[in-house]
């Protein structure tokens, strides 16, 4: 699987998110989601197309290839796991946890993500309550 920069991971994740909610993905959808300029998107789409992660005809819809879907699911899964960990352990608001997860997902190795998932799933409710009390 291709290794992507943090920025390209954000683009492929954004395409995945748009396609989960809508039947098609347009460049303008990505612009809105990531709050980036059209030239930045055009450049990123060119790179992702060159890596065989997306298909896009000129001025057409953006589609993920099979390899692109695998990579997008992996990035989105990491993001979701980190967000859930932050919410469950630190009682952080969803939007704050989401923004923080977006930054963390690019630097945390897979084994740490797995540990975060295990902690989130197996946290004793009494322990969580105790940790939240200490926070206040």
TrEMBL record:
Q: What is the lineage of its organism?
A: Bacteria, Bacteria division WOR-3
Q: Which family does it belong to?
A: Belongs to the DtxR/MntR family.
Keywords for this protein: DNA-binding, Transcription, Transcription regulation
Q: Where is the HTH dtxR-type domain?
A: 4-65
Output one GO MF annotation: protein dimerization activity
Which residues does UniProt call coiled coil? none
In terms of InterPro entries, this protein maps to:
DtxR_MntR_Metal-Reg, Fe_dep_repressor, Fe_dep_repressor_sf, HTH_DTXR, Iron_dep_repressor, WH-like_DNA-bd_sf, WH_DNA-bd_sf
One Pfam family per UniProt: Fe_dep_repress
Listed name of the protein: Metal-dependent transcriptional regulator
SUPFAM superfamilies, A to Z = Iron-dependent repressor protein, dimerization domain (SSF47979), Winged helix' DNA-binding domain (SSF46785)
- Entry keyword annotation includes Phosphoprotein: no
């Amino acid at each position: 699987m291709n290794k992507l920069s943090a920025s390209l991971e954000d683009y492929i994740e954004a395409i995945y998110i748009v396609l989960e909610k809508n039947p098609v993905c347009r460049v303008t959808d990505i612009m809105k989601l990531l709050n980036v300029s059209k030239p930045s998107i055009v450049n990123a789409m060119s790179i992702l197309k060159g890596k065989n992660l997306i298909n896009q005809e000129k001025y057409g819809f953006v589609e993920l290839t099979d390899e692109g879907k695998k990579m997008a699911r992996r990035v989105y899964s990491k993001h979701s796991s980190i967000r859930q960990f932050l919410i469950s352990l630190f009682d952080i608001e969803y939007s704050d946890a989401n923004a923080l997860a977006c930054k963390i997902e690019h630097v945390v190795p897979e084994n740490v993500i797995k540990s975060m998932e295990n902690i989130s799933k197996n946290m004793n409710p009494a322990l969580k309550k105790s940790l939240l009390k200490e926070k206040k």
